[in-house]
Amino acid sequence: MPPEELIVKDNILTIPNVLSVLRIILSPIFVYLFLSVNINYKVISLIIFFFAVLTDWYDGWYARKYKSISKLGIFLDPLADKVLTTFAFLLFFAIGMMPLWMVLIIALRDIIITFLRSYDEYKGLIIKTSNISKIKTFIQMVYIFFVLALLLYSFEISDSVLKLKIDEFLFRSVFNYILMLLVTLLTLYTGISYFIEKKYYVKNEIY
After folding, report:
1. Domain regions of the chain by residue span
2. For 33, which of 26, 45, 127, 164 could close a Cys bridge (C-beta 3.0–4.6 Å)?
3. How does the average pLDDT of the chain come out, rounded?
4. What is the CATH number of domain 15-203?
């Protein structure tokens, strides 16, 4: 059996689950608005993303504090994070900032792990999200918000020199490329670590 603190209730309509679904719904909306030529829509897009990130923190806090943790929530919360970050990276690819192979590694890792988690949970094996995966998600969220805010700032300023420097940093600098590469490799590593953790759970019959 899974640890007692993991599975408290099987109620579907919990606040954490509702917030996770909301995060999934908001993901394509924030991308659509950011791609708009209307600067006000871009501002709203950044606000939506920030709100979605806050729901990620709040639903986790709420679930632990009020013991509102369910089987669905254990699956839904990390899925919502994956959807949100994947849409953001697709946005970065669409504007020419992130190479396709990085996006594919992140997206494929998330799709594969999501399906494996679903299958394992169907079989009764529930693996709690690891700390390294939580750190990965945090780093992704911070990086995405930083880039979105920087892009928005470059759209609004009239200083052509500063605008050029921001564009240079985001689209052509080695430093930002390395940052994107580190995010990609960390994401890939957490996917590999899932199999290691699964082997540990099975070996020790923690299910």
Report:
1. 15-203
2. 45
3. 84
4. 1.20.120
